Amino acid sequence: MQINNPSATFTRPADTTAYASGDLVANSTTAGSVTPMSFQLGNSFGPGCFRLTRARISKSGTSTTNANFRLHLYASSPVPANGDNGAWSTTKAADWLGNIDVTSMLAFTDGCCGTGSAAAGSELYIRLTAGSIVYGLLEAKAAYTPGNAEVFTVTLEEVDAF
Length: 162
Description:
Elements: E1 3-4, E2 7-11, E3 24-25, E4 37-40, E5 49-59, E6 69-74, E7 96-102, E8 106-108, E9 111-116, E10 124-127, E11 133-140, E12 151-159
C-alpha cells in the first residue's frame, strides 16, 4: 500500500470581510482571476483510479469560530461564477467528483487545522478519464470571519490500493 499526500496552498484576499454560509473561499475577489487548487495524485490501482480517504485543511489564522468548510473536487478545472466571498457556483457539473466537509478545526499557536471525510460515505473512489490531477475549491459552510490575507493549505489523503 502506498499513501500519497498532495497539497495545495492559496492566500485569500487582504480583507476581513465575513463569509456567509455558501460563499466561495478563494484567492481573488474577481471570478475570472480565481485559481482553483490542483492536486497531483499518485500511482494508483490502474490508470486514473484513485481512492481519497480524507482531507486536511489548515489555515494561518488562529480563530476556530465558524471555521467550517466544504472542499469541492473536480476532474477538470472548474470556472467559478463569483470571486472570493461571493456565492459558490461553478461550471463543470459533469466533472464534479464529490465533496469533503471539515466541520471543526483545532487551534494552535500558529494557525488552525481540521480533517474531514467524504460527505456521502467515508471515501471517494475516483476514476479520471485522463491524467492524475484533481481540482478543488473551498466553500464556507458557516458565517466565518477570516484573517487578513489568510493562507489556506489543503492536503488530500490518497491510498493507492483498493
